[in-house]
């Protein structure tokens, strides 16, 4: 069930209304049923997978709590991670592994292995698996007490707003809220609905419109010039941000309506002044997951510079593989790992150069150039993320560097007409303006809530009509799946 589908427009109000009408002691049961219904709307049989992951990590928490020795606790953690990662590997990486084995067998002139069964990737499996595993790690570290109520824990793993594309919540935050009392509050509900509305604007007006141009170019790279591919890549940067941020925004808003607070997942990433800063702002729930549960476990930066950079590369290679079972995702992760290492190695030299040039912190030109360079580097990496495979990515990079001629750039040749171009540019300018205000004042949205009701409702109506009039849906369009559903 997609957030931008008609079914969800029926599902969410019914779930919310019933949620506030039923007694407190039944609320979590109602949300659990709603969450499983939400997930089963894609494929009912895969509810067994999320149930298996839930049962494994729930039992691991009990075993860790009852274990008498540290060795026994570690075995419980190992069992939980091994079983969950095996399930994830089988459903997400089986064909990737087979393809690579067959590539080696081909070199050795051996017959290819052909699987006799089909595997369909369960939606959101990477997200809920990581969320469940964080619980095991948190219990082992003593950061949370093991949950004794299986159904409440099951709601933590399957909470429908963030189930299939995040944010990847921590047990310290979400599980504690499952056990809290929840009441209707008009101001909170209003704020949650407005947050959802902004998410729909990002998805339907910007992301799905940018996708028209992006898909036209990237579905046939060899037919376009370097300038056209570069423009499509910039549009993809806009598309993937608005697409993914929209899901997180709608999820956060929907949860807020029901009195749950989810963690922030994006913080204006294209305002980042460095790649390190970018990853503090982009997919925060995942980047912080890798920091807390992989990077630190590997030793972080406490075992010397060489080990630190090795750990960074391991994290980003893993992050690339997490995003997709294909080498072009691994290369995307490797590129960001290399960016981070180069940034770390040259940090002191760049600081010394700034001091010699008398460039102060906050210098507008320096900040602008830093952000521009970071954006270009991120866009370059997006080529590998968006391409279907390494061959297509290599062709895109080759054309950008060998046939880049802006004078031949005709945007109307890229599958999008003038009217849609104007709408897209206008909507992006609105996004930039809102982002600038938020960058200057994190409390901008809270202040906006205190506007005179006429001004406030004028903003609401503008957004509503923008989504209704300019949203990409209706005849010729289907409810567009969110990009991160495939991960």
Which secondary structure elements does this structure contain, and how are they paired or packed?
Elements: H1 6-21, H2 24-40, H3 47-66, H4 70-107, H5 125-140, H6 150-158, H7 171-178, H8 186-218, H9 226-257, H10 275-281, H11 284-295, H12 305-323, H13 327-345, H14 347-356, H15 364-386, H16 390-402, H17 418-440, H18 444-449, H19 453-470
Helix pairs in contact: 1-2, 2-6, 3-4, 3-5, 3-6, 4-5, 6-7, 8-9, 8-17, 8-19, 9-15, 9-16, 11-12, 12-13, 13-15, 15-16
Characterise the protein shown here.
By secondary structure, the chain is mainly alpha-helical. 70% of the residues lie in helices and 0% in strands. The chain is globular. It starts with 5 loop residues before the first helix and ends in a 17-residue tail after the last helix. The model has no long low-confidence stretch (mean pLDDT 89).
Tell me briefly what this model is.
This protein is an all-alpha fold and 487 residues long. It has helices at 6-21, 24-40, 47-66, 70-107, 125-140, 150-158, 171-178, 186-218, 226-257, 275-281, 284-295, 305-323, 327-345, 347-356, 364-386, 390-402, 418-440, 444-449, 453-470.
Helix share of residues?
55-70%
* Low-pLDDT ranges: none
Tell me, briefly, the overall form.
Answer: globular
The end-to-end span amounts to: 16 Å
Q: Which secondary-structure class do the elements indicate?
A: mainly alpha
**Beta-strand percentage?**
under 5%
The total of helices stands at: 19
**Helix and strand pattern:** HHHHHHHHHHHHHHHHHHH
What is the rounded Rg?
A: 24 Å
Mean pLDDT across the residues is 89
Number of strands: 0
Give a short account of the largest sheet.
none
């Amino acid at each position: 069930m997609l957030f931008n589908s008609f079914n969800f427009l029926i599902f969410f109000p019914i779930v919310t209304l019933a949620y506030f009408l039923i007694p407190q002691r039944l609320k979590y049961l109602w949300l659990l049923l709603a969450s499983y219904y939400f997930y089963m709307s894609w494929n009912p049989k895969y509810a067994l997978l999320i149930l298996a992951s839930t049962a494994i990590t729930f039992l691991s928490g009990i075993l860790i709590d009852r274990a008498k020795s540290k060795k026994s606790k570690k075995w419980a953690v190992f069992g939980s991670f091994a079983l969950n990662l095996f399930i994830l590997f089988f459903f997400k990486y089986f064909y990737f592994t087979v393809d690579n084995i067959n590539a080696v067998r081909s070199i050795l002139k051996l017959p290819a292995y052909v699987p006799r069964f089909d595997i369909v990737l369960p939606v959101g499996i990477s997200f809920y698996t990581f969320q469940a595993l964080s619980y095991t790690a948190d219990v082992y570290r003593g950061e949370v007490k093991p949950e004794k109520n299986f159904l409440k824990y099951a709601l933590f793993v399957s909470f429908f707003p963030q189930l299939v594309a995040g944010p990847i919540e921590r047990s310290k935050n979400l599980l504690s809220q499952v056990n809290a009392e929840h009441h209707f509050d008009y101001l909170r509900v209003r704020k949650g609905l407005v947050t959802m509305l902004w998410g729909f604007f990002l998805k339907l007006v910007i992301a799905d419109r940018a996708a028209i141009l992006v898909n036209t170019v990237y579905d046939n790279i060899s037919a376009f010039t370097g300038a056209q591919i570069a423009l499509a890549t910039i549009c993809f940067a806009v598309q993937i941000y608005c697409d993914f941020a929209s899901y997180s925004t709608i999820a956060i808003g929907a949860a807020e309506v029901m009195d749950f607070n989810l963690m922030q997942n994006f913080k204006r990433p294209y305002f980042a002044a460095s790649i390190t800063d970018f990853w503090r702002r982009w997919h925060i729930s995942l980047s912080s997951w890798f920091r807390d549960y992989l990077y630190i476990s590997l030793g972080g930066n406490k075992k010397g510079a060489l080990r630190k950079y090795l750990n960074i590369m391991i994290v980003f290679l893993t992050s690339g593989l997490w995003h997709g079972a294909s080498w072009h995702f691994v290369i995307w992760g490797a590129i960001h790992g290399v960016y981070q290492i180069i940034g770390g190695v040259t940090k002191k030299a760049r600081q010394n150069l700034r001091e010699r040039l008398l460039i102060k912190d906050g210098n507008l030109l320096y900040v602008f150039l830093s952000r521009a360079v970071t954006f270009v580097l991120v866009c370059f990496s997006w080529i590998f993320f968006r391409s279907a495979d390494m061959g297509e990515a290599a062709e895109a990079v080759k054309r950008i560097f060998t046939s880049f001629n802006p004078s031949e750039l005709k945007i109307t040749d890229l599958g999008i007409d003038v009217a849609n171009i104007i709408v897209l540019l206008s909507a992006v300018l609105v996004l930039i303006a809102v982002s600038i205000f938020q960058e200057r004042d994190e409390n901008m949205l809270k202040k906006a809530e205190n506007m005179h009701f006429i001004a406030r409702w004028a903003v609401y109506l503008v957004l509503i009509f923008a989504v209704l009039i300019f949203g990409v849906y209706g005849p010729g369009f289907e409810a567009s799946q969110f990009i991160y559903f495939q991960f």
